[in-house]
Specification:
Largest sheet: 6 strands, mixed
Distance between the termini: 93 Å
Strand content: 15-25%
Radius of gyration: 25 Å
Shape: elongated
Subcellular location: Secreted
Oligomer: single chain
Keywords: Disulfide bond, Metal-binding, Metalloenzyme inhibitor, Metalloprotease inhibitor, Protease inhibitor, Secreted, Signal, Zinc
Organism: Holothuria leucospilota
Helix content: 25-40%
GO cellular component, one term: extracellular space
Number of helices: 6
Number of strands: 10
Pfam family, one: TIMP
């Protein structure tokens, strides 16, 4: 069998297997990436900015050894730099987006967004992929997400966010996972569990961690940062989960036969 054909068959099968595995991947229309908390995208990507879209245009082939034809170039004017080279703060940045993962249909010129991007080909050559990087209208961010960009998301080397694959009660999964001594700044302390399954499967559940919290160091462990909105969201989720369990229990319980009416002293009426 031709090696190239075999590779394509293998990758296609792998994509189907991973894409259907507990909805682990974002549904991004042909661009499947592991769904991540915004903080994890902030930590993993090399550039995070607040910027206004100046123009969106087509791009020529990148050339080189990649052989990748880039579809779109997004020119943005940087208003704030949260992560990346400080020289980028005073100049326009060009973000490349390609294939089924492009952002051209989702962005509006003149609008302000938060962008995270990765320079995967060479330093300073930034790529954004729909579903893989964090791209969101600035005015749609929650106060807690903005606080994350200004500081709460910065515990990257000490705390990581781990996805749980279960569909169990998320409230049982937000405990500290592992602990290690703090020997240095780069020594990881632990993880915060992030269960997105309920939010994805049941639209009544909000993703409380994504919207209202960050994984931060508290003492010698990593915990979800609690605030008013986070506690309010978790309380609502717990209530909905409890209600859902009751409804499920009713559906699974055997149906009872209707009781026969009790026969008392019956009177016969003659006409």
């Amino acid at each position: 069998m031709n090696g190239k054909v075999f590779s394509m068959m293998f990758l296609g099968t792998l994509g189907l297997a991973l894409g259907s595995n507990f909805r682990m991947f974002d549904n991004t229309g042909g661009c499947d990436c592991p769904s991540k908390h915004p903080q994890q995208k902030f930590c993993d990507d090399s550039l995070v900015i607040k910027a206004i879209v100046v123009q969106i245009r087509g791009a020529e082939s990148t050339g080189g050894n990649q052989g990748m034809s880039m579809d779109m170039v997004i020119e943005v004017s940087v208003n704030e730099l949260f992560k990346g080279n400080e020289t980028l703060h005073s100049e326009n940045v060009y973000l490349h987006s390609y294939g089924m993962c492009r952002f051209d249909m989702m962005l509006s010129v003149g609008q302000e967004y938060v962008f995270s991007a990765t320079d995967i080909y060479q330093p300073g050559y930034f790529v954004v992929q729909r579903g893989c990087n964090w791209v969101q209208k600035w005015n749609s961010l929650t106060t807690e997400q903005i606080n994350g960009l200004y500081g709460d998301y910065y515990d990257c080397r000490l705390c990581q966010i781990s996805k749980t694959m279960t569909q169990s009660n998320p409230l049982d999964d937000y405990s500290f996972l592992q602990r290690s001594p703090i020997d240095g700044a780069d020594e990881p302390i632990g993880m915060c569990y992030h269960n997105q399954q309920m939010a994805f499967r049941m639209r009544t559940y909000e993703d409380c961690e994504t919207l209202y919290s960050a994984c931060v160091v508290r003492g010698n462990e990593c915990l979800w940062l609690e605030n008013r909105e986070y506690r309010k969201c978790m309380k609502k989720r717990a209530k909905e989960l409890k209600k859902g369990r009751k409804n499920k229990a009713k559906q699974l319980s055997p149906q009872r036969r209707p009781r026969k009416p009790k026969l008392g002293n019956r009177r016969t009426i003659f006409s």
